[in-house]
What we know:
This protein is α/β, with parallel strands linked by helices. It contains 20 helices and twelve strands. The strands form three sheets. It has a six-stranded mixed sheet. The protein has a four-stranded antiparallel sheet with strand order 2-1-4-5, with no helix packed on it. α17 links the parallel β9 and β10.
Amino acid sequence: MIKRLLQEVKEFKKASLAAPLFMVGEVLLEISLPFLMSYIIDQGVNQGDLGAVVRYGTIMAAAAFASLFCGVMSGRNAAYASAGVARNLRRAMFANVQDFSFQNVDHFSTAGLITRMMSDVTNVQNAYQMVLRMCVRAPLTLICALTMTFIINAELSTVFLYAALFLGLVLGLVVRFAHPIFLKVFERYDDLNAGVQENITNMRVVKAYVKEADEIEKFHGASYQIYKMFKKAENILIFNSPSMQLTMYGCILFISWLGAQRIVAGSLTTGELMSMMTYTMNILMSLMMLSMIFVMLSMSIASVKRIYEVLMEKSDIVNQKNPLTEVSDGSIHFHHVYFDYGKDAENAALRDINLEIASGQAIGILGGTGSGKSSLVQLLPRLYDVTSGELFIGGHNVKEYDLKVLRDSVAMVLQNNVLFSGTIKDNLRWGKADASEEELIRVCQMAQADEFIRQFPDGYDTYIEQGGSNVSGGQRQRLCIARALLKAPKILILDDSTSAVDTRTDFLIRKAFREDLGDMTKFIISQRIASIEDADQIIVMDDGQISGIGTHEELLINNGIYREVYETQVKGGEEHA
Length: 577
């Protein structure tokens, strides 16, 4: 796990090595200062030798400035390396997410992925910077200071061994009980982010139903859960501070008492005792830093695991070796296709689908909610893969095609398809990056979007807000249809994507399709009979199966579901007219 994350160090290896090396220099120079101080006191002040004071004082000042320089360089390199690693981690995660199938995304959830790319990576960034500096400084200072105290007086130094054992026991217990809580906290963060994302995305609905107070209460509830869990973790971590203080003052009192006795007995000098006290503070500060490191690492390890899960997640939809690079036509063949979102054959979203569609046909799909309409068409561009059976496009199994080639050959327009922030031209050119203005106008005329675009003061250069919030639902759908047409795909799928336009506009769009898209296979999913009645074939879906297939006239005679919908919409409309 750690090995995988370290692969993202890449171009920051030099800085990652320089930071701890400069830190080693800083620590060694710092450790020399108390030793030099003892010489100033014992050989200079006590002996009345001013030359010794100046000599050792100059060396001490030089060592202090050199230590400061090393500290600055260590901090600079550590900050540079940690920020770079965080950038690389986010890039690697985002790049991997782009290859995810819909099932991979469903596994993590959108909010969970955002939390991992933001909060978790920030935790790892802070931990990495701490590892480069504190994880070098603390143990090295501890070892060097202990060595110096043993050189000065081995008997007094044994107190630190007992102190280290005591603190090690306390830290072990703290980390053991606190770490599982941090794992759960980040899961709660996912839920909190999901709630915030849902609220902001659906703000108009919230205001329309005057549910602001309910949403605030829901947010407070989620925040309070995180607060309680952090409080529980802090109640465990709080034992770290008093344990540290107890150890620190106990060591100082013990060394002061025994050190004074040794000075009286003549086995210890005043300068050596002062050095011992300074090294004592270094040792205890190192132990305190180590305790902070353990706490920080217990939090960051939870984040590391979550990041690792995203990096190691592999899409179950990948290219085969030597994939086909061209889709010959829009002919489609479903052969005993089963599909289930959870790989559960007993509750399959699609069951035993057998279907032959010739290239260029217009196919209407009708069915109730949950009948499998969208699941059927989402298999065509391999947004999901069939659970069993085979799906052919252009005479070849869809798994034989290069994914990019296949998806470029299939254009989907969903009911809730979104627009991105940018001009209308920018959004349309998602379909074809180098499209000319004439091409943009042509597809917009087919999608019945050209007329309302020209009514905007800036025309095709009109800026679209994020999500298309500054255009109506019908306008947004027509722009999305135009964007799909610009791809010039072999197969066009309209998944209830004219639901927000009026019947006249719907008719004009279908008329343009018949006249200009004769060689393109078209799927039109709709709840309106009028939108699909002139299709070459109409598929009636019911509970994941094909209930009926045929022309409008044939289904009126042979299919009860279709006839019931028709009578409800057409005859019911006449009764209310």
